[in-house]
Amino acid sequence: MSIFSKFLTGMSFRTTTPTFEAGEEIEVYVTELDEESGELVALVGETRLYFENGEADIVGCRVLAKVESFDDAEHRGRLTHLKTLSQGSF
Amino acid sequence: MSDTDSGDGTEIEEISGPDVEAIEFYGGRWMSVIPIGLFILWAIVQSGLFGIGDTTGLVAGMLVALIVGMFFAKGDWKNYANTIFDGMTKRVAATAVVAWLWAGMFSNTLQAGGFVGGLVWAANAAEVGGALFPAATFILAALFTTGIGTGYGAAVAFSALFFPAGILLGANPVLLFGAILSGAVFGDNLAPVSDTTIVSAVTQDADIGGVVASRFKYAIIAAVLALAAYVFAGNAMPGLDISQQAQDLFVQNSEPAGLLHLISMLVVIVTAVMGRHIVEAISWGLVVAVAFNIVFGLAPLSAVLLFKVPETSSAASWAGSLPIAEVVAPQNAGVTGSIYNGAAGFFPLIVLVLLIVAGSEIMIRGGGFEAIQEWLLENVATGVRKAETTMVVGTALVNSMITINTAAEIAIAPYIARIGQRYNINSYRRANILDANTSALGYIFPWGGGVLIGFATLQGLPNQYEWFTSAMVVNPVQVWPYVFHGWFLFGVFLLSALTGFGLEYTTDRKSKDVTRL
């Protein structure tokens, strides 16, 4: 990223429901374990990304994940947990 | 540091921190809030009610709070005591401490080299009158604070030099004091060497250079609005009728050579933007500043470092011939100079911050932190817009209660991180929300540390100038509506939270290593 773009990034009004492409690798914090479905969830804004694998002890951790599928209309996606990178800041 | 298998064949890397042992409290997990809660109460009483802006007094408050909290802990108090140690040795605190020490040495060396005098000279050369003087003061205080990174230092320097000059030129005193505080807000928010910038970055896992670049857009929007407000108000609000020789004061304090330190500032800023380590970047700035002081005669080497050798010392006979030593009476012995004073100025704040982090650690292990967070997430921050608004208002509220803004920032930082990470709000955005509101609110309310430090400086002016009367001193209660940049910065972030302007997610871009600028 150039120095110029560092200053300009984010100069826009961002949606609460960002979208993703299948095959994309993303870093996300794991938000919670959904009690109803028993699946791990990462909220990106109000977009819900469900993990197809991973244990409950990574809730709150920053992980590398691959987007397997994404539904633009429902703002829902499915992820594969690839690697846990770090815990949250606190 | 431990590597753990996540159960699906992937490896957990960089999971840090010791094995934590929970602390149980009589009365439940909410009681673990006692150390931090008691400290906030102490801070409100000491600085808000009594008007005492003494950081060491807050250290005493945190010590008392930690002791009181211990009596509510169940079982062996050894666990409670060890938690204090664990908190105080956290990397987040250590990183801030290192940065403050370097930033303190640098800023003090610039002041020793007459940087403020150079800025005064520039204002004089530009023939700025009373109506425009507050606007010019805002710009120069903002530049100065951005260079040295300490709004408190700017509040002192500008209250001592710009305030009397502005009064003599016919500027409105309340507006002028507001402009000085606004400049302090701007620099505290934006400077890479600012303590609040450093804390906001390291607590949110963001690199300082990226944080500064990403917050520029918010700072400039607020600054342009504030500048326009100072120009308008400067023409609308009359000054005091003083027919004294304003030029005399300017000439007395003006030294254009001090402007050479703009290069020292640039060295730090450019090195920072190039992504070098914080210690390295500021060290280069310090080396250049010391060299300029000596080569261009801005300040002698003894202003940077001076050993005051007691005449009873066996080395007294030859030490006096050194450029960094002088022989003094035994009761005056010691070390001084900008390197010494710059670092020492942060000692009380360093101790306070370590103790506050310890208190936070007790609250985390006692469950109080989790309880507050659950309440916020379930009742307040129920969507990303509400979460961001909660972060903005929460930071502002804590800063309106704890008057040492860096201490307040550290106290609220874990909540900003947790709430923000829940919605995967980018670390830059979290750091920006945290720092902007910390910087703004710390210089607005009458009991704010920055306001009190400036006020204390103004109170000393009647002793310095014959024409300056006590009636010219601005009461902190008068100034809060006129800290325009602070209010606009808070407003920009409130609107940003409500509309999504500037919002970035963790998936949008990655921060670099947190310990790099």
Automatic annotation (TrEMBL), chain A:
Per its UniProt entry, which superkingdom is the organism in?
Archaea
Q: Could you tell me which residue ranges the TRAM domain spans?
A: 19-81
Q: Which Pfam families match?
A: DUF7513
Record protein name field? TRAM domain-containing protein
- Natural source organism: Haloarcula hispanica N601
UniProtKB/TrEMBL annotation, chain B:
Q: Name one Pfam family in it.
A: Na_H_antiporter
TM ranges are 26-45, 57-73, 93-120, 132-155, 161-186, 218-237, 257-275, 282-307, 339-358, 440-462, 482-503
State a GO cellular component annotated for this protein. Answer: plasma membrane
Q: Where in the cell is it found?
A: Cell membrane
Q: Which GO terms describe its molecular function?
A: antiporter activity
The record places domain Na+/H+ antiporter NhaC-like C-terminal at 201-487
Q: What are the entry keywords?
A: Antiport, Cell membrane, Membrane, Transmembrane, Transmembrane helix, Transport
Concerning its family, UniProt says: Belongs to the NhaC Na(+)/H(+) (TC 2.A.35) antiporter family.
Protein name per Swiss-Prot or TrEMBL: Na+/H+ antiporter NhaC family protein
Q: What is the species listed in this Swiss-Prot or TrEMBL entry?
A: Haloarcula hispanica
